[in-house]
Design a protein that fits this description.
The protein has about 375 residues and is an alpha/beta fold. Helices cover about 40% and strands about 15% of the residues. The protein is elongated.
Length: about 375
Amino acid sequence: MGPGRTLNRVCLALMTDAFGGRGGIAQYNRDMAIALANGPFDAVEILPRVAPHALDTPAQKVRQHAPRPGRFAYVLAAIDLAWRLRPETIFCGHLFMAPLGLALARLVKARLVVQTHGVEAWARPLTLQRLAAERADLILAVSRDTRSRVLAWAAIGPERVRVASNTVAEDFTPGDGRAMRATLGLTDEFVILTVGRLATRERYKGHDRIIRLIPRMMQTGLRPAYLIAGDGDDGPRLAAIARECGVGDQVRFLGHVTRETLPDLYRAAQLFLLPSTGEGFGIAFLEAMACGTPAVGLARGGAMDALCDGELGVALSPDDMCDGLLRTCCDLRAGLLETGKPLARRVDERFGHAAFERRINRLFAEDHPD
């Protein structure tokens, strides 16, 4: 903040989507807005690009303005809000918005904070995005992996790039999954669940790897039922792989699952599995474990933060995925993996809303250069 400027504890948040959005980034943006409103700011004003679904009621001190999907209309709306509000901080919820955020921050002498998530920040970005990020007062990364990749291309002091991991919603708690299993027609099957988009450009999530492992699991005496929650254009390819592997009956494509249904779905599973090689963090790991369901991922990228380097969830080597998964299934059946309320309690201590808000408040309260 420039010398002699009157303190105005308002944060203008430029976001792709937040309230009324769907997906991990929208959820992170909602959690961030609420944390900022509960902590250092008197008001958080959100300008989203889109809000495709019914608008959730924002928290007190949080106001979301009408979305502006067009780029030119969005820029004009952002300039108008910045000039009228004179915010103390401009928060960019996505690296793509950093150039606009920098221009607004210079215009109204505000602090600039840029959020980075995953693949959008892993490779060297466009020049304007890189220059804007380098001039930010603070860059937040959802994981250590994303932070290290940002530092690889940004000429910025490492103390100005900090980790602010995802949090998990409070309704993801342990419970009885029998009703959901009955709804799905499941009895004594060993239920494995994956939650994630079935997008051709996101094949790194690894649904196909799991499908190809099912025959091997069946040879060990397991009766696996693999539930895939999510929709997208890669579904037909995955269904074809299941048929080719002779496990079409064991693989269930559930399509899009509503947010309200997700906790019960996690509770219905014995194991959550996401062998992704491209997660910026992996919020689904937290959601599963918060419901008391053990989570398994690969020791790659941001998943290591969600799995706490194997302390909360199981982190397998990509080269040992098959044998590692079979060992994990045996450990689970033998009662050697933490499940239920003990697992959920540890997730809440590390990633719950209270922990998230303390972390965000601490980061935003730190001194920053003028």
